[in-house]
Amino acid sequence: MLNKKECRKEALCRRSGMTMEERTDAGRRIAGLLFADRAYRNAERILIYASYRDEVPTYEIMEQAWRDGKQVFCPKIEDSPEPETTAGGKKKTMTFYRVFCRDELVKGYQGIPEPGITEGRSWEGSSGKDLILMPGTAFDRERRRLGYGGGFYDQFLQNACSAVKIAVCFNCQVLPELPEEETDVRPDRILTEEGWI
């Protein structure tokens, strides 16, 4: 079995090999499958990443969620209130903030779009009607997920127990098997343009 670094490299290479047309078409199919699903229809609050580079596009999903009257929250990477790490750097944490339109997203951590307005808008724990849509680099059919290596989603998901957790990816990112650590949190389901896992 490949190690985490090799799995990330393989899946990201496959993803970057998709044409813009293939990504756009696959993104539309993913959105259509999501909108037809009970988890989306029942959700009052959607916690969703703002897509970056060649990730599964999420702006169409956000726009539909706003039209459907759902609250939309996007992640922001910030300095943690916890003490500094042993390496002397400031520990980072991920917090979700409500956004009312796409224009409220600004370039943030590592160039990734994130909420620019945060005061009084933080997500304050699961209401039981929350849906989390998360990205990743690689996945497998046992619902193992590899993120980008920061551990932000694994850390966040440990405190979001009652929310429905769905990872979205292109089918080419699904590998035969991924390594897993004790701190890794599996999504409840994975959605690709080919269907649900």
Automatic annotation (TrEMBL):
Amino acids binding substrate: E55
Entry keyword annotation includes Ligase: yes
Pfam families linked: 5-FTHF_cyc-lig (PF01812)
Enzyme Commission number(s) of this protein: 6.3.3.2
Top EC group: ligase
An annotated Gene Ontology molecular function: metal ion binding
Reported cofactor(s): Mg(2+)
Residues the entry annotates as binding ATP: K4, K5, E6, C7, R8, R145, L146, G147, Y148, G149, G150, G151, F152, Y153
Gene3D superfamilies the record matches: NagB/RpiA/CoA transferase-like (3.40.50.10420)
Keywords, alphabetical: ATP-binding, Ligase, Magnesium, Metal-binding, Nucleotide-binding
Keyword Magnesium in annotation: yes
One GO term of the biological process aspect: tetrahydrofolate interconversion
Catalyzed reactions: (6S)-5-formyl-5,6,7,8-tetrahydrofolate + ATP = (6R)-5,10-methenyltetrahydrofolate + ADP + phosphate
NCBIfam families in the cross-refs: MTHFS_bact (TIGR02727)
Family from the record: Belongs to the 5-formyltetrahydrofolate cyclo-ligase family.
Protein name: 5-formyltetrahydrofolate cyclo-ligase
